[in-house]
Design brief:
CATH architecture of the largest domain in chain B: Orthogonal Bundle
Strand content of chain A: 35-45%
CATH class of the largest domain in chain A: Mainly Beta
Helix content of chain B: over 70%
Largest sheet of chain B: none
Largest interface: A-B, 55 and 64 residues
Distance between the termini of chain A: 80 Å
CATH class of the largest domain in chain B: Mainly Alpha
Largest sheet of chain A: 11 strands, mixed
Number of strands of chain A: 27
Distance between the termini of chain B: 25 Å
Structural class of chain A: alpha+beta
CATH superfamily of the largest domain in chain B: RNA polymerase sigma factor, region 2, helix turn helix motif
Oligomer: heterodimer
Chain lengths: 502, 164
């Protein structure tokens, strides 16, 4: 009977089984417990054999057709993971806290706490500058230039509390009612441009350059018109003084000066970038410079042509961290850059400057090796906004994740990401903007192999031509792979010399 | 993930025994992995993972039967249930099976090994195996059966309590 069963199973497997044979198989299994056992034995053995004999050597060539088993299975697990992300109950409407956006900063020295980056959303709280100037755009539309030393607390999208310092406010009609308070004064804008200075001793000056401002002091309210200025002492008594527009930094001055600052930074980065491309630890370095805008090739650090030169697919040239700096923009699901590297690595450091425009896909590829096999490296951002380094060892895989790094208010600005896989120290370390985010001990030991690699996507060739949307939505303007673990202070320096703005 | 990897071959075994070889089978394997992963939240950690996963694999196979209207290879629901139950009740560990299989493949007579290689490494159908090995189709069925039986017998020996 087992021979008959064996034959039926073979026929089913080959797709040559006939209806009468199916009925016979069904009958055998229903009526003979030992046939059921034999069926189960054979089923399991078939799967074992397919795993064993269909399996690839450790470094597979991806062009082979029958390598599907470990590869497709693992890919399926990944795909499944991706479905999980999509289906986990996440808020349908992502939210963030904010009052304003920091749009410019010129040589700012921040007093305490964290220094917000240019381009980031400013939540409620104090902006405390010991020197330098910043431009804050309230969500209401009011623009404020704050000159340090200064302390301005954002309390809402249209209101701030000044403890000391100098500010110039531009308030369009749609932001009327913009309010600046101090411990004793309240300034309510009535459609205007004004300057306000509060000294540490408590003396204040208000200059109205356009429109009108309502000033409330000790329960008394008065309006001040164009060209007027008042000096109010700590006790609350006010006297008229000549208005002095020159005393307050204007938008155009700040703009001009920060453009010059950006040019200096770009030049400084250029020098550092030339140094970096000659670093002996560099496996691959893309500065995204020196390419004509029609080029579909991303040149690596080597002067001669090499498989490390990236082939650009879909992605378009765009502006990078500074005016004039080149970047590649990844938007469409097919956009990617492909390169090839034959090395094997004990340790790797991955570094990039990237502008993530949206977290709107299950995975946002930064750098992924083709396939998912032993030695594979998958560096990407998840839908939850985590930075993830997925490592595949023989039959083992692990994701080294950060906590959430990309909240909605972090999107749309240039960030420096760096991840170190250190086999000697047996750990993975993630960095963002030069700061250490977390350290995770290695789960298992494996060397890393790159092979065919994609930036900004994962084009794993599964069956046919259906791909998951796993591309980056954003821009990239610098990318490096080092064959060694970089130290924390080196990563901080890389960030500092590449920071787009203070 | 760990549970899945520990039961992967058993789960795939069910599918491979119920669906003709080919891209469809590969797709079902992938879909099943995806669903297992996706529904992992619904798995009660105190219960039998293999039983849970095999039931899901069975639904995937049934869904395939329905969408493809490939009723030709379709076993009855009662039989499917019985197979799932029997397969889930097995307690061998996959890593132990894997070691046993390596040993048994090494011990397999050369001719049997060649047939197994043709069938599983090359993915040959039984008529193909017949052609490649200079047999009639009838003889190829018999020879494949003997090769599988040798392997199974050897594995039973290696996996029997006391030999583990």
């Amino acid at each position: 009977m087992t021979e008959e069963l064996s034959r039926l199973m073979d026929a089913l497997r080959d797709g040559t089984i006939e209806d009468a044979q199916v009925a016979r198989l069904d009958q055998l299994l229903a009526e003979h417990p030992e046939a059921l056992d034999a069926f189960v034995d054979r089923a399991w053995l078939q799967s074992d054999l397919r795993h064993r004999l269909g399996t690839l050597p450790a470094a597979p060539s991806l062009s082979r057709r029958r390598l599907w088993m470990p590869f497709a299975a693992a890919a399926a697990v990944l795909l499944a993971g991706l479905l999980t992300w999509a289906s986990r109950s996440e808020p349908v409407h992502p939210s963030y806290e904010g009052c304003a956006v920091l749009t410019r900063a010129l040589e700012p020295k921040w007093d305490a706490g964290s220094a917000p980056a240019v381009g980031s959303v400013l939540p409620k709280g104090r902006l405390s500058l010991s020197s330098g100037s910043i431009q804050v755009e309230f969500f209401s539309g009011a623009r404020v230039i704050l000159e340090g030393p200064a302390d301005l607390e954002l309390v809402s999208a249209n209101e701030g509390v000044c403890r000391h310092g100098k500010l110039r406010a531009f308030v369009p009609p749609q932001a009327q009612g913009f309010t600046v308070r101090t411990s004793s004064l309240k300034l309510i804008d009535r459609g205007t441009e004004f300057g306000f200075r509060l000294e540490r001793g408590g003396d204040a000056e208000l200059h109205v350059f356009q429109g009108r401002v309502e000033l409330q002091s000790a329960g008394v309210s008065q309006e001040l018109g164009v060209g007027k200025a008042l000096r109010i002492d700590a006790a609350g008594s006010a006297r008229a003084i000549p208005s002095d527009p020159e005393a307050f930094l204007t938008l155009s001055e700040l703009n001009l000066r920060s453009a010059e600052d950006a040019k200096d930074r770009y030049a400084r980065w250029g020098t550092a970038s030339d140094r970096l491309r000659r670093d002996p630890r560099v496996v691959l370095y893309y500065s995204f410079e020196d390419a004509p805008s029609w080029s579909r090739e991303l040149r690596c650090q080597r002067p001669e042509r090499s498989p490390l030169d990236g082939a650009i697919i879909g992605a378009r040239w765009a502006e990078g961290r500074w005016a004039g700096k080149k970047a590649l923009e990844f938007k469409c699901p097919g956009d990617r850059v492909r390169f090839q590297d034959a090395g094997e690595y004990e340790s790797l450091t991955l570094m990039t400057w990237v502008r993530v425009d949206a977290i709107d896909r299950p995975f946002h590829g930064l750098m992924l090796t083709d396939g998912w096999v032993s030695g594979s490296v998958h560096w990407q951002i998840t839908k939850k906004g985590l930075l993830k380094l997925g490592i595949h060892g023989d039959n083992q895989m692990f994701d080294y994740d950060t906590p959430v790094l990309f909240s909605p208010s972090q999107l749309g600005r240039w960030v420096h990401l760096c991840t170190v896989y250190d086999r000697q120290a047996r750990e993975v370390v993630h960095y963002m903007d030069g700061r250490l985010v977390n350290r995770i001990p290695l789960r298992f030991d494996t060397v890393l192999r790159l092979g065919n690699v994609e930036l900004g996507n994962w084009g794993v060739p599964l069956h046919g031509t259906i791909y998951e949307v796993r591309g980056l939505n954003g821009r990239m303007d610098e990318f490096a792979v080092f064959g060694k673990p970089l130290r924390e202070e080196e990563i901080r320096e890389l960030y500092q010399v590449g920071a787009p703005a203070p | 993930m760990r549970l899945f990897l520990q039961n992967q071959r058993r789960i795939y075994g069910l599918i491979l025994a119920l669906v003709p070889n080919g891209p469809d089978a590969d797709d079902i394997l992938q879909e099943t992995s995806a669903v297992l992963w996706q529904k992992f939240d619904e798995f009660d950690p105190g219960s039998n993972y293999a039983a849970w996963a095999l039931r899901i694999a069975r639904y995937q196979v049934m869904a395939y039967y329905t969408t493809k209207r490939r009723t030709k290879a379709r076993l009855s629901d009662e039989t499917l249930d019985a197979v799932v139950e029997r397969l889930a009740s097995r307690t061998e560990r996959e890593d132990a099976r894997s070691v046993a299989l390596d040993g048994c493949l090494a011990d397999l007579p050369e001719e049997d090994r060649r047939l197994i290689e043709l069938r599983y490494r090359g993915g040959a159908s039984v008529p193909d195996v017949a052609r490649s090995s200079g047999r009639t189709v009838e003889a190829a069925y018999k020879a494949l059966h003997r090769a599988h039986e040798r392997l199974l017998q050897c594995m039973r020996g290696k996996l029997a309590p006391g030999n583990a």
